[in-house]
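Revision sheet: structure tokens.
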Amino acid sequence: MPEYFLKATEDIVPNWTIESPLPNVAIGYAAEPVRIEMVIRGYLTGHAWREYKSGKRVLCGVTMPEGMKESDKFPEPIITPATKAEEGHDVDISREDILAQNLVPEADYLLMEDYTRKLFARGTEMAAKQGLILVDTKYEFGKIDGKVVLIDEIHTPDSSRYFYADGYAERQASGEAQKQLSKEFVRQWLIENGFQGLEGQTMPVMPEEFVKEVTDRYIELAELVTGQGFDRATPEPTDEEIMTKVEEVLNRLK
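Predicted:
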């Protein structure tokens, strides 16, 4: 799935990948990461909703309108950056603070903002064709030979949240929770089992039935978003097979 979206957006922004010789293998360039995650939100949910519900109306320097309820659509998508922590949790930060602290050169940051809006627009179009709403997501950038490039995956449940378009308006009107595809249910399970990634906390063991649910829901999202089937029967390649494929590609690139 990551390769699918990177190929679908390489006309917008260059990315780190060279080739994917196997479904679970990607070969690419090493980039120097920009320590800012570009988070963009089209709807009020997740972290933004928790902040809004607590009474806050400004997130990362962006003012959120009054009178919104959970899962409402913003008048236009908002960018709410976060510092990319080496360890621990990422921290919200405004564009003004990023530039004031010289965390990213202004020209690079403005380019990242432009890429972020264009990538989100493309992702929104692709999702709509599959009956989904791209709710929010994050993009990570780096630099290769001084050039800003997209790094990491995009538009997968690891970085993105989707609603089902069918019934969205009706659920909002009735105050019903939106039907969504994302990793939020994993986060909620962890919270309910006393784990938020805080110091001193121990990761709970996930029951087999919950692991299966996670797998099924991720596969469902992959099939829905890409419109392609997922072959569960194909065995994972061995380490030896992976290394053989990698060496073939590297030898070809010499």
